[in-house]
Design goal:
Length: 149
Amino acid sequence: MRAGLAIAVLLALAGCSSGDKKAVQTDSRVERCTQRFLDRIGGDAKIRSYVQRTYCEPFTRKGWVYADGTLSIGAQLYVLGGTACSAVRLNPGGSTTTIPCDRRPLYPLDCAVLQYVRRNEVRTYLHKLERSHTVSCDDGTPLDKLGAR
């Protein structure tokens, strides 16, 4: 009986101490990302849960959350083009053709996620966009104020 109890205790301790290091890192990235959003927007437990499930967990799984909780530009690009979208064109004779939606960024630019992307990545991204368009934020945020530090 004592041997069985000792083995059970050892197994339990081994299970606790051999936790998945990647899972712990992922959890902390999700938490830091979530907290960055909440620091900016405020909110209660429901908002925290929404931000965590909708943004931080998926972005972390895709590798777009840094250890400090800031996002990579991949998160912005995903938000801009991540929706399932297609249009149907009616052809002469009644047949239809499915065509993909235009995935180019809309102007003014949706800047919400850019608030959480590292500033150097935001600047590089905006510089590329500004080569061919006049860029402004849909919410009026000045471009030089975008990006997380």
